[in-house]
Design goal:
mainly alpha, 3 helices, 49% helix, globular
Length: 79
């Protein structure tokens, strides 16, 4: 997707979601800036990720259903 990323991850109940998101954004930013240094000049204020995020617990929805939803979002974007 051009403006967001879907991630399907499993975390232990005692983990702080905000810490995990911060870690994922930090590590991915460092990697991408090292691999593609010119990216920084094309970004607003040099930040790769917006400070916000959305999290949803899956409840009693199957992993297969979630994977299909994510794939469907990819198809919608390509059309």
């Amino acid at each position: 997707m051009p403006d967001h990323v879907h991630l399907l991850i499993s975390i232990p109940p005692q983990a702080k979601i905000s810490d995990i998101v911060k870690h994922l954004k930090g590590v991915s930013s460092r990697y991408l800036f090292q691999e593609f240094p010119d990216i920084r000049t094309k970004l607003r204020k040099g930040h790769l990720w917006a400070p916000s995020y959305f999290v949803r617990a899956t409840g009693n929805v199957t992993i297969g259903t979630i994977k299909r939803y994510i794939k469907e979002q990819e198809k919608r974007h390509k059309d």
